[in-house]
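Let's practice the habit of predicting before peeking. Look at the sequence and jot down your guess about where helices and strands might fall. Then scroll down.
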Amino acid sequence: MALDGLYLHTLKNEMESTVLGSRIDKIYQPSKEEIVLVLRGKGPTKRLLLSAGANSPRIHFTDGELENPKVPPMFCMLLRKHLSGGRLLAVRQLSLDRVLYLDFDVADELGDRKTITVSCEIMGRHSNIIIIDQDGKVLDAIKRVDREMSGVRPMLPGVVYTPPPAQQKINLFTASSEDVKSAILSAKGSDLSKSIGNALEGFSSTLAREVVYRAFKTVDMDKNALSSDQWDRLLFSLFKVRDAAEDPGDGLSILYENGEKPKEFSFIPLTQYGALLLEKRFSSPSELLDRFYSERVRVERMKQRSGDLLKLLINATDRVSRKIANQKEELKDCANREQLKEYGDLLSAHLYRMEKGMTAVTLEDFYHDNQPVSIPLNPALTPVQNAQRYYKEYHKAATAEKMLQKLIKEGEEELLYLDSVFDAVSRTSGESELLEIRQELSEQGYLKRYKTQNKMIKGKPPIPYRSSDGYRILCGRNNKQNDTLTLRTAGKEDIWFHTQGFAGSHVILFTEGKTLNELPDRTVEEAAMIAAYHSKARAAALVPVDYTEVKNIKKPQGAKPGMVIFDKYYTLYTTPEEEEVSSLAAEK
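Done guessing? Here is the structure:
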């Protein structure tokens, strides 16, 4: 579901009630199309996220971690120049359209007061963040639009700002019941929900269907066939939605597909899906959007930043897999090496029956009840040389078998390593984590030409958690950090956790001097859930997690980062629950 005008209205109300009068403390630009304004006022400091990304344009307060570039982009520097220290005067919405204006009172270089407006336009691929001076001229836009791209509405420094073209729709907050009915009847088509979306401002298709479903318990309604009583029911449903946009109460909700993938959201409970989707309620419009977009945007952002790494890992995995397949085929050819030795023995025992120039000889096989066997011969060799040739092929096959078995084992270990790196890359949350992984791959020879230009960049520490019983838990972010956490940070009596058969992070439960038997079962279960959540099996149910004391963990000589062995261990089955894992997160 897209962020529609009515939901934007709830966000406007939230901002007016929480940050009006606040001053801009800091300004960041985490990515090419995102801005974060840190607002400090009488209440708690708020971070306002503005995004013009085509896949997730939005504006809301956020509590998520957004890693900022070391050097701020030019647009961020321009915002800091014009807005730093500015006080938020007003939050305005363009009717019920998806445009929000933030008016800031700022001082210029001479100390004179002026108003700078930030326009946040949430319109799919045409979304934009625009800075407008008090004369109505564009100072800059996060997405510049030249006259070749749009001759009607260019967005370049110096041009006069023009709002998006007005839609021929009516505003539910100012229209009468008769106006609403007339607009719906005049809209194109006969489908009722589509006509609502075409006639009224701020209605997404999902919200329009919800209005119809609430009125008639079905979304398939012909507007031209409605009776007077049915029109009354429809209008009642519409104005109830309008009232909810003013005060959502506890109606803010996300619907999850399969219990985990966010599918839809709204400021009212969506009843049209019945029991097909799982609902979760939220206390504020921003909290809802922060949760809905956080995982989706994180994945998209890291996919962009880590695309080259993922491609490298996929290619390396494919190359190693083909090599193992070829080696296994060669190993099959070594399976008949005992027959080669038997042929050599049979020829040696019957040299007197052969002579040079023979292409084959039939002998009684004393290895198999003296059954006759035909043995191919090289006519250019003597009988003795033919026997020696089979012995030589036998020793060659035996040596090849041992070597191939070793190479196949090493290849399978390399596949496990590549899988673990791929999993780590897919779970990264910032550029510093990617830099650590790039450095690791460089050290392992996968990025031979990689040269770090940020040797002084300090990677993030392990992810901290605190169990319900107060025990400290740390989770590694990548293979090198897993090694450090397990082999250096943890004590011998601490407990180590890792998913069985799945790539994932090392998790350490610090026991504070207690033995495993003395630890609360709940704490052990929570640590196992954290290990399952930070693994390739995050979306699975009943994930097996092995755990043992750190003293039982060994790292073989020459093993790749993150690779360890252990023998004494227990296994616990758990289902990763994002909410429960998040609730255990400790202060960083």
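How did you do? The chain has four domains: 5-141, 177-301, 312-422, 463-583.
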